[in-house]
Write a structure and sequence with these properties.
Elements: H1 9-16, H2 20-27, H3 35-48, H4 54-61, E1 66-71, H5 77-92, E2 96-101, H6 106-118, E3 123-126, H7 139-143, E4 148-151, E5 161-165, H8 167-180, E6 186-190, H9 196-211, E7 221-223, H10 229-240, E8 248-251, H11 254-266, E9 276-278, H12 285-288, E10 295-296, H13 300-312, E11 325-329, E12 333-334
Parallel strand pairs: 1-2, 1-3, 3-4, 4-5, 5-11, 6-7, 6-8, 8-9
Antiparallel strand pairs: 10-12
Helix pairs in contact: 1-2, 5-13, 8-9, 10-11
Length: 344
């Protein structure tokens, strides 16, 4: 079966007896064309099945009205909310988005960003993969004046737009909350320390212990690769076998925290009386698990909207590799049953 011919502006011009340039201007709502003519041309274009060639337009203008997104995994609640915020803001300005996921692999991220660059996107929003240390694949964007916004997982030592939360304060406050509930042996499920978010959360945890004169026990700090459910289960079993097991756990994400709650319950540990647990992100599962999980709010959708605005408001004339604009958002402790020993 032969493919149907793609309708072009030349086909529309022949059908309506207008010049191709008039058709083109009408389709782009040019002020030199009357509203009546624009309406007529657009209606005919729709009837004939015309599709604008945005890629060709991008080639002519050296950019398209498209924002590229590079994230770790689209099925994470935080990432879904982040994308929702980006799309909402982009749509208001007539922009589309292209989403790619690295599955936390550096090589995937490099390949994805190359494909997005070749698509002549107008800007790139990135949450770095867990493996990423080298940042050379982002420099091609900056050299061409294409804005790059790092959101949540942002790099050290590379000037660009960044939209983040205060991970240090959030980690400090989460640990302080457990201390206020009477915990004196607090474990920490830590993420990869070359990632800014997990580094900050661990520093906050350590400083909260120091300031409250609680001894730091390295046995209680477990470093994870991805903070998965399986890693959380394994770590919790290991901690509960210690001669002096923890009475509190601060996990750098909700997934591992929920795993800790479920694993401890299976072993007959009372939550929160014997083990108080707090996570991070306020994923939907946090309010579903029994007992419900205390956590730290993470304004993902707001971060997405702000990231998109950085792209939309960006001026090529002012962008260079020296730009450094960091937006830091606030977080809150959400106290639920998994840590609340002092219910009124």
């Amino acid at each position: 079966m032969s493919l149907k011919k793609e309708i072009t502006i030349y086909d529309l011009a022949r059908e309506l007896n207008y010049s191709p340039s008039t058709i083109s201007r009408a389709l782009n709502d040019h002020k030199s064309i009357s509203k009546k003519t624009i309406k007529k041309i657009k209606e005919t274009a729709q009837e004939m099945g015309y599709r604008p060639n945005t890629l060709a337009a991008g080639l002519r203008n050296n950019k398209s009205k498209t924002i590229g997104i590079s994230i770790s995994r689209i099925n994470r609640p935080f990432m879904s909310s982040l994308i929702s915020g980006i799309e909402e803001e982009a749509r208001k300005s007539g922009y589309n988005v292209i989403i790619s996921q690295s599955h936390d692999k550096y090589e995937n991220e490099v390949n994805n960003t190359k494909a997005l660059y070749d698509s002549r996107i107008s800007g790139l929003i990135v949450s770095l993969s867990m493996e990423t240390i080298k940042l050379d694949h982002f420099k091609q964007f900056m050299k061409q004046g294409i804005p790059v916004v790092f959101v949540d997982r942002a790099p050290h030592g590379l000037n660009s737009y960044k939209v983040v939360i205060d991970n240090y304060t959030a980690g400090y406050n989460a640990t302080k909350h457990l201390i206020e509930q009477g915990c004196t042996r607090i474990a920490h499920f830590a993420g990869a320390q070359h990632r800014n978010i997990y580094e900050g959360r661990k520093k906050g945890y350590l400083d909260a212990l120091k300031e409250h004169e609680i001894e730091i026990d390295d046995e209680l700090i477990i470093h994870f690769k991805t903070l998965s459910f399986e890693e959380g289960e394994k770590a919790t079993k290991k901690l509960l076998k210690l001669p002096s097991p923890p009475d509190g756990i601060f996990s750098a994400n909700d997934t591992a925290a929920v795993s800790a709650v479920m694993t401890a319950k299976k072993q007959g540990v009372k939550i929160p009386e014997e083990l108080a647990v707090i996570g991070f992100n306020d994923d939907p599962i946090a309010s579903i698990v029994e007992p419900s999980l205390s956590t730290v709010s993470h304004p993902a959708e707001k971060m997405g909207r702000i990231s998109a605005k950085r792209i939309l408001n960006h001026s090529d004339k002012t962008h260079d590799e020296g730009i450094s604009e960091v937006t830091v958002l606030h977080t809150d402790i959400i106290v639920r049953d998994s840590s609340n020993r002092k219910k009124s």
